């Protein structure tokens, strides 16, 4: 079977939507019921506002790196024009360049709260980091030249910009205007040179003399330019191309890295040949021969220490014969050379030093390495160079994310419980020092409720994240693949695989936060039920069930075999469990004609399994091959801890399993759920009598008919129907698609099953891709011992409701309009000793039914809220009249719909494929919000988008990042306070002392008045056509335009104060000018008086 492909989902969904629309149009809609007691709805449009909150995860496709050594802030730029800033753990910020061009370089204005970004579209941008949401103050667009390298000297306002043509331009960062001072390439190189030196790859000023600028050209030429004399003092030429250059802090030597894997160290005053040439990874060759060339050294840094040898740190330079070797960072310190292997290719690295001054001993303490898919920080001060434990949530993509769930307002004890079991999973061997990137300050915590994000991954792992108060921290990781036998190589893989790769990938997660029960559905048609325990156990035999879920109606050898068996009347419930279940699943691998049959896709381990504290396997359920037909992928899933049931469905049908008794209760094709009430005239596929093993026929739902074989289905208390999981398997032909109706939504509840019911009872509501809702009644035995011995009786009720489009979500309201959550059993430690009082255990196991059925007035009525791809309906129960209806979209379809709590009320939130986010009041379905947010650019967004309570939502914005958004006005208003501050006032360290002799004889660092050289008065104006200045939105006017809400009122007040301060400043300046004028007048008057004092009257 071909690999499961999610790219065909949209086609499948569109086809499903169009067919269901036509079918829905033909069915008659029930007239709206008379609303005897209208529910008072409190939510209004003003409660809603949509905005992005925070972005978590590793920056996708990183391209540039910068660090502010005083503020202790790290910046990462990406190929899509994104900018991510990191301070202390919990202080993060995301910005985006509007052009979307790749960031090629970042430069902090150290300790100034500003950052310059250079982009591949030849623009420079100045970011203001002194506000919680950084904004661009100025931009400069180069028209005639391409930017290749930038350099910003410490405590300078002049930025050197090197170009592809080999020229260097100088930008005043305060005004973001070009100086007239230009260093032309033909003046920097030897006049006798006939060839162009190539683009500028390096610019830096001599640490001891700011008036001397070192310029590196790609071809191998380096020039030391005298800024005052406007000429090159020295020129250094080498045969090999240059990739990077670094100074020794004394300014007497510099080091170059080359394309042949060599390093050349040059004395500044000796340009004829290198002082030393090193090939860090070259083989030692005798007889004076040149060593074999190595791969290019892409970057080198030269850092000095007071106490010992300098550090030379480089990336690349490996020998060409090291095939398959991972990318390396090499640290050379004295005579020792350490080669540190990385998991991904190195994008950039920076050495973190104690001082920001380039003319002082650098004292390096760490190296931050930006990899293609990771950020690594190496401790240079400890033996063996251990890495720091990364506190940022950058491991979301450790294995690709395949599904996502978001839970706000969880039980308060959940996060500590998950953290305590997750703490044992932490790796050892990290550096003992604290994380050194610790700038910024946390925001105020205005949200006090716990939030949890669960991510499912391609390798079968599941991660639980603490997402409270707009932060993210990993709590616990569960590896679901541990229960299966793994093939050592691709050739050993079983022939029953239905996917080419990632056979354990998670498709659907169903989690009950109160009971801590977890259920997952995987891509190989497997379902695993987990219980949470704080104690370690060893499971001798992993409990498992195999389920034969078919799409075809069996023809039984009887006269009426051609008729579909009718649904039972409400009085006669079928008991498909009257025959004892198989204790061991069938292991036959082929049927009589040699086709694969009765075999699951994966093999469960038959050895004992040690289970650590955390989530422990309760039951593994697998769909099996049937007569050469592979099992279809699971499209919906639900679990209920109060009933002890799990239910799941696919395009073949539905199966329900009692995970307490480990038995299959229900196994039906979707068509059979309708019985004789099927509104579609579907012909079953041709029978396969010869292929069908004995006893594998689908059960007739009649009294006295029993299931001959274990078949299973799993319940959904909170099923997330991903469009990812709704795509049809490749084995389904286009003809089959017309008649195949998949199970798309499942919901356990305690409600009215039939019109004649007088009291609510446990049941399962089933939604299909053709817009049908069917109800299955559940007859549960009493709790305690009886629950372990007596069977659960399951019977379709005959209730059928219709909507346009596939059913996505169902929920229930009481007569006050409050949500009626499914019943649950509170969590208790499952692995306790057995000697406790049995009565206590029975009491503890009593399920919490949240349904307010005990109150007589409430039990008179309930409302079912059903959301499909096209519309939403509110149906009054038990009368089953449609009370309210809303057509959500005509031209598109809903990808995700959730019934969520907000501001002590509830609403329906929808995300459409056309990019609109909408909310509707409940139960009246009044439109409250309709905002165009983002188009469905790829299936990753459709697969991971989810809403949760308190106005929160999220989706996977890139393969490595989660974007959180809010649709709550209150959260939008409080967001400014919740965000952390990147910039904090820090005193710049003192400059290094010159020392007595250096001061006496004129040694030490030479300063330069750059204003005198580069200012307009000295250098003139730059050509207007060279670059265009673009004012950014980050100034006062930009803040004015963005101001809204309470926080922005403060911003307005601050702006008013600033403006008032400016006016007062201007007034003070005018007063000072008047005083100066008065002084001048007084002086002139005094001079005049002295001049005239001794003159006689006739001398005037």
UniProtKB/TrEMBL annotation:
Residues 13-36, 561-595, 676-732, 824-855 are annotated as: Disordered. Residues 1035-1095 form the V-SNARE coiled-coil homology domain. It is found in: Cell membrane; Cytoplasm. GO terms for cellular component: plasma membrane; SNARE complex. The keyword Methyltransferase does not apply. Residues 708-723, 826-841 have a biased composition (Basic and acidic residues). InterPro entries: Lethal2_giant (IPR000664), Lgl_C_dom (IPR013905), LLGL2 (IPR013577), V_SNARE_CC (IPR042855), WD40/YVTN_repeat-like_dom_sf (IPR015943), WD40_repeat_dom_sf (IPR036322), WD40_rpt (IPR001680). It is a peripheral membrane protein. Gene3D superfamilies: 1.20.5.110, YVTN repeat-like/Quinoprotein amine dehydrogenase. The keyword Transport applies. Belongs to the WD repeat L(2)GL family. This is Syntaxin-binding protein 5. It comes from Podarcis lilfordi.
